Amino acid sequence: MTDTLLVTGGSGFVLSHLVRQWLDSVPRSRAVVVDAAPMDAAARDWFGGVEDRLTFVQGSVADPAVWKALPSDAITHIVHGSAVTSISRLLDDGFSAAVPALETNLMGPVHALAFAAQCPKLKRMVHVSTGSVYGVDGPVPEDDPMPEEGFIDPDGYYGISKFAGEQLAVQSARQLGLPVVAVRLSSVFGPMDRETPARAVAMAPAILMRRALAGERVKVTDLGGAGDYIHAGDVALAIRALFDAPKLNHAVYNVANGARYTMGELVNLVAASVPGFEAEIAAESDADIVIDPARTGGRWNAYDVSRMRADTGWTPFPLKDTLRDYRDWLLAGI
Q1: What pLDDT, on a 0 to 100 scale, did the predictor assign at position 74?
Q2: How many beta carbons lie within 10 A of that of residue 235, not counting itself?
Q3: Whole-angstrom Cα distance, residue 188 to residue 269?
Q4: Rounded-to-integer distance, Cα 217 and Cα 215, Å
Q5: Looking at the whole model, is its pTM more than 0.85?
């Protein structure tokens, strides 16, 4: 039987890695990608060589017609990742301006779960959530990493909407018996990170590496702060590990590096890949990255990834290695 993966948001940043890995590693497999934006040049290049097994559907996951057109009888695996991250900037034009984004984040999971219930060959579904569901008052680095249980306190519309979708997925597993679990991602970086209609967020490793390759210093307000950073390729490997695990003992899994790095440590790691790179302290008005050194607890801490390790055997690659991979991808595009 040919396995077919459905990925919403699969031509964007993080999940494009999953689609590519899936098509490269699963013989005779196919993938269906649903995305609101047309496939751009970066995505077409990324999927070069496997496009004959990839079906792209442009449309909103909040639109029932999009779901009705998908081949429910062929789908064996689903990853629902479509989301709008940059809701806060939309609110500058009033709450009504954010409604389409909230429809994507809230109704997208509803339609995805309803579709999953109609897939007779479905083996597993993964709902992609975020560490933004956590508050800032959880464990601090001197104590324990952030666990999946407790400390839920999203402080923005993005985190709130993502937590709602996550809970819909968890309840669907409990009440309907759907084979679905949720993953909460820490801060993700890596190849294919670019501004799109749904994403306008630049993670610290992206800013640092781009400045380094441009031969420029980075301006930061402080060398403390920072958090837990994971390469998008590691996220894809984690989701595939969840697909392959014979038994999953939890409804929600952290997917993260599992270690916390300060801004100073990140700068040093980037400098190890791009010799001569340095940071300078600057005022907030002139800084490339604004750091709050008091943000060390809760979602700014390391994330506990022991569930993933125990249930799937997955473990992320060292950050120094994944930063080099990101460097090489950026260099290839310069």
Answers
A1: 97
A2: 25
A3: 16
A4: 7
A5: yes
Other Cβ atoms closer than 10 A to 270: 27
Range of the domain at 31: 4-192+229-259+297-317
Does residue 166 form part of some domain?
yes
Cβ contacts of 44 within 8 Å, gap of 6 or more: 51
**Which position has the token pair 């709450």?**
95
In a domain, 169, yes or no: yes
Look at the block and give the residue holding tokens 């801060």: 187
β-strand pairing of 279-281 with 218-220: parallel
As a whole number, mean pLDDT of residues 287-308 equals 95
Asked if residue 70 belongs to a domain, the reply is yes
User: Virtual CA dihedral for 62, 65, 66, 68, nearest 10 degrees?
Assistant: 120
Q: What is the dihedral of CA 17, 202, 319, 18, to 10 degrees?
A: -10
Per-residue buried b or exposed e for 219-230, using 16+ beta carbons within 10 Å of the residue's own CB: bbbbbbbbbbbb
Q: How far apart are CA 87 and CA 102, in angstroms?
A: 8
Query: Rounded to whole angstroms, how far apart are CA atoms 242 and 115?
Result: 20
CATH number, residue 73:
3.40.50.720
The mean of the pLDDT values for the chain is 94
Separation of alpha carbons 103 and 90, rounded Å: 13
pLDDT in tens, 49-104: 999 999 999 999 999 999 999 999 999 999 999 998 877 777 777 788 788 889 99
The percent of residues in the chain predicted with pLDDT above 90, rounded, is 86
Q: What is the CA radius of gyration of the chain?
A: 19
Q: Judge whether residue 107 has pLDDT over 90.
A: yes
- 97 belongs to a structural domain: yes
Following DSSP, what letter does each residue of 239-275 receive, concatenated? HHHHHH-S----SEEEES-SS-B-HHHHHHHHHHHST
Element (H, E) at 55: strand 54-58
Is the predicted pLDDT of residue 334 greater than 90, yes or no?
A: no
Under the phi-then-psi rule, with left for phi > 0, alpha for psi from -120 to 50, and beta for the rest, what region is 23? alpha
Domains in the chain: how many in total? 1
